[in-house]
Write a structure and sequence with these properties.
Elements: H1 4-18, E1 23-28, H2 38-45, E2 50-56, E3 59-64, E4 68-73, E5 78-83, H3 94-98, E6 107-113, E7 118-123, E8 129-134, H4 142-146, H5 158-164, H6 173-178, H7 188-197, H8 211-230, E9 271-275, E10 278-282
Antiparallel strand pairs: 1-6, 2-3, 3-4, 4-8, 5-7, 6-7, 9-10
The protein binds a DNA duplex (16 and 16 nucleotides) through loops.
Length: about 290
DNA sequence: CACTTGACCTGTCCGC
DNA sequence: TGCGGACAGGTCAAGT
């Protein structure tokens, strides 16, 4: 799915596009996509205005004037796309080509605003979900109680980063960095990119990682995700931002999905292996066990 | 408790 | 062309 940079990009787009708008109608394909009781939807979503859009880890939070919040996880293939019948982005913008094409077969939830613009939740694989709950209860859901710190927060230090991995000392560094309770927001793309940056083999056990390596990894995680936010995220398959636009980080990726190509540092052919049950890309010369 | 594996879904790609 | 299998940005429940 969308990892931290992609969800952050969607958040920034929605902040500009939907804050202040009033919801007129909300509907979903099945209870799986949006399991809230119809009575709750009627009472706390319909007629509510959007007051804010936030992100925590890979979760999007859309705050409402009713003191309720739409909590959204895009998982692997979720998209949140805003479409207006009026052209808002200029000639040739991909958003214009979406007018009339949504909803489609992957649309799971539709929110219609009073000005006739729409927000669509599309999700091909149906792993994603939308929940409506009181804003004050959001921190109490299991995921929020478990999830680790935001790695891009200015006060998040290298020392805290290293400290958080100690609970996973006997697993691989790849499994640990993907564990949302250790650090929030890192997924398969940025795990591979940052481990390459720090020259650490993904199958190394956490307990064997030195302090110097943790420090390097901390720097790489932040650098890679900040760069990706700047590029609007990664479109590996079907990720798009709130305007329906693809992200360009994959043009800057050093190892992810680049098996058979040259390592940008040393020229060795990048290989794809399997670590922690996930496809994993490394430079076999610089990342060793 | 820490750790690994399979399940959840649909679509695409690759080899036969 | 068709078909089977592997695989895809994430997380959980169930197993060891």
């Amino acid at each position: 799915m969308p990892e931290l940079p992609e969800v952050e990009t969607v958040k920034r787009g929605l902040l500009k596009l939907i804050v202040g708008k009033k919801i007129q109608i909300a509907s979903s394909d099945t209870a799986r996509s949006f399991p809230n009781a119809p009575a709750d939807v009627q009472q706390f979503l319909v007629n509510a205005s959007i007051t804010d859009v936030r992100r925590r880890a890979k979760v999007l939070l859309i705050d409402l004037s009713t003191d309720y919040t739409l909590v959204i996880h895009l998982k692997m293939t979720g998209q949140l796309v805003f479409v207006d019948v009026r052209s808002r982005f200029g000639a040739g913008h991909p958003n214009d080509s979406l007018v009339g094409t949504l909803p489609d077969k992957s649309t799971r939830v539709i929110i219609k605003f009073t000005d006739d613009s729409h927000l669509y939740f599309n999700d091909q694989r149906k792993f994603g979900w939308v929940r409506l709950m009181p804003t004050i209860e959001v921190p109490n859901i299991d995921f929020m109680k478990r999830v680790g710190p935001e790695p891009l927060e200015p006060d998040f230090t290298a020392a805290e980063f290293a400290e958080r991995f100690k609970r996973r000392a006997r697993t691989t560094i790849k499994a640990a960095i993907l564990d949302q309770s250790v650090i929030a927001g890192v997924g398969n793309i940025y795990a591979d990119e940052s481990l390459w940056g720090a020259k650490i083999h993904p199958a190394r056990l956490v307990g064997t990682i030195t302090n110097a390596e943790f420090k390097k990894l901390y720097t790489e995680v932040r650098a890679v995700m900040n760069l990706s936010i700047e590029k609007g995220g990664s479109t590996n398959r079907n990720y798009v931002n709130a305007e329906g636009k693809k992200g360009s980080y994959m043009d800057f990726a050093r190892v992810f999905r680049r098996e058979g190509l040259a390592c940008p540092r040393c020229g060795t052919e990048i290989i794809k292996i399997r670590v922690a049950g996930r496809g994993t890309h490394i430079c076999p010369k610089e990342q060793t066990l």
